[in-house]
Backbone:
């Protein structure tokens, strides 16, 4: 099915291998790229290669970044005594966008999932425990996802840390702000009831 | 808002400039790319640069391709006496996927649109007329889109070609196959009625 010639077919195939980009989207992207300035196309290709080459884990919190320490760990204004544990770098970014959190993070790069064969040794858990020994930490906030894997991981980490005497908390589950009760699932409604606070 | 470090932010920004890729999608794509094999990342970047560098117009039909003639024009089995006029290369691919059309194409790269300042001289119309003089063409099938611009272009081309004595046709408008009448707009229903055929 070669309508376009090999070069364009190849570009469509490469773009089509990216997540959530189907054949139609890949074609649209390919033709957009073919219509871009040659300079802009080189910038795009270089950004791809350069980011992949230079990306590494922050030595402190293991988020993906391009230096020894990520912008958050190297910021002297952040409170290093509070660590929020998240599953991946995008979750970190989600909390950063709130602009409210002043502590630092620890990125696990996954969650414990016996079904998928991911055990505690496959995520950055050992690194978290080492970090807790090195630094004086007041509180560990577990912000793994509210999925089966996220909850399992939260329970596991909590058990691991409790004996050290460090305070361990979990972000609240409940009805999303602006959410209509009618459309919220039963498990969430139940959690919201359990987690009710006095006004 | 630098959560990730410059390299990753830059990659997200570059990806976010592509059409129909918002910030969230750009982030998802960026982290997917960061997790890919270095070899696969290079293949992707090379496909982008190489396609952009080597893409050109087919000398015959002006579709985007990577050689002097596109795979269709260089195929001796295609009927060179029937030319289907389309707005862009993707429209050509759409008809190719039907597998039914045996003629060749002419790609206009746009449609006449006074509103957008696109006149007959801005699309590959002169090239079509030159082509009709050079080759012995039986029929020109106008398959521009069924939009205002597409219809204007179709009317204009038809007027231009008629004096040469070459047969000019337009693809049918009507109810899409599998379409439910209830959900089809009035203009389409009207066209389908006008274009009714005897059974």
Residues:
């Amino acid at each position: 099915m070669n309508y376009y010639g090999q070069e364009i077919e190849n570009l469509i195939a490469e773009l089509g291998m990216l997540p959530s980009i189907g054949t139609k989207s890949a074609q649209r992207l390919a033709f957009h790229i073919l219509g871009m300035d040659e300079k802009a196309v080189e910038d795009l290709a270089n950004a791809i290669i350069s980011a992949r080459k230079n990306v590494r884990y922050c030595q402190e919190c293991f988020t993906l970044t391009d230096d020894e320490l990520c912008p958050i760990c190297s910021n002297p204004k952040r409170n290093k005594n509070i660590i929020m544990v998240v599953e991946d770098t995008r979750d970190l970014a989600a909390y950063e966008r709130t602009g409210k959190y002043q502590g630092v993070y620890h990125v696990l790069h996954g969650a414990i999932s016996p079904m998928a064969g991911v055990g505690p040794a496959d995520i950055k858990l050992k690194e978290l425990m080492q970090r807790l020994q090195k630094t004086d930490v007041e509180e560990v906030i577990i912000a793994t996802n509210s999925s089966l894997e996220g909850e399992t991981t939260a329970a596991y980490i909590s058990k691991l840390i409790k004996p050290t005497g460090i305070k361990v908390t979990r972000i609240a589950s409940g009805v999303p702000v602006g959410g209509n009760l009618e459309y919220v699932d039963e498990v969430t409604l139940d959690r919201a009831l359990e987690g009710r606070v006095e006004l």
Residues 64-198 of chain A form a domain with the Dna Topoisomerase Vi A Subunit; Chain: A, domain 2 fold (CATH 3.40.1360.10). Chain A touches chain B through 59 residues (CB under 8 Å). Chain A has a mean pLDDT of 91. The CA atoms of residues 158 and 168 of chain A lie 6 Å apart.
